[in-house]
Amino acid sequence: MKPSAYVVANWKMNKTGAEAQSFVEKSSKLLLNMEKAKVIFCPPFTALFDMGISLEGKPWILGAQNMHWEASGACTGEISSDMLKACRVEFVILGHSERRHNFGEPNNWINQKVLRAISTGLHPIFCVGETLEERQSGKMEDVLHKQISEGLAGVKNSNGMLIAYEPVWAIGTGEHATAEQIEKAHGIVKNYVCESLGDIGKDIPVLYGGSVNPENAGELIKAKSVDGFLVGGASLESESFSEIIKEVETFIKE
Ligand code: PEP
To answer: Ligand 1 centroid vs 9 CA: distance in angstroms?
Structure first.
C-alpha cells in the first residue's frame, strides 16, 4: 500500500479543447467516488484554457507539456510560465524524451525551465530516461546521472516536483519495463536526486512511464519504488485511462 500516488495523462499533440472537455465529462461518470489518486491532465497548449474550466470543482489537476524559461520576449512559438498559470496550470512536464530526442533539448535548457517553473510556483514533472542503445551498452547510470545532475543544478526547493523515469525504449512501443528493471532504475534515480538536492530529494515522488496500460498497471504499481505513472497512449481514451486510475487507487491507503 502507498500513502499516495499520481497518474499523469500526457496527451501529446492530441485533442482540441472541445475533445478535452468531453473526455473530462465521460471520465467523471466512469470515476465516480474515485478521488484517492492524484490525477493530472496535460493536454496541448490550445486545450489548456477549456480544460481549466472543465476541471473546476473536479478532484483533478491541470498540467502542461512544456514551457520556456524566459518570462516573455522574442521566443516565437513558445509559452511562458505566466501564460500557463493564467490557464490554471499547476504542473508542467519538462525534459520529456520527445523534447530531448526529437527537438534537441539539452540538459541546460531543461535546467533553466525547471528553475523558472519552481521560481514562479509551478510544479515540474521532470522526466529522465535512457535509450535502448544506452542501456545495452551499459551507459544507463551515466545517462541518468548527467540528466539529473545537470537538469536539477541550482535547485534549492523542489516545490512539489515529481520525477518521471521513462526509458525511451518503452515510450509508445507497447514494451514496458519490468517491475525489476523499474525498481533498479528508480533506486538509481533516487540516489542521484538526493546527491543533487540533499535531503529534500528523499520525498520527491518517482513515477514510471512507458507503455503503461490497464493490463500492466496493477502489476507495476505494486513495485515499492513506483509512486505513480506518466501515461501517454492509454490516457487518450477515457475507458483505458479510468481503468489505470482504478488499479492505482486500490494500492493507496484510505
Ligand atoms: C509518455 O508519453 O511519456 C509515455 C509514457 O507514452 P506511452 O504511455 O504511450 O508509452
So the answer is: 9
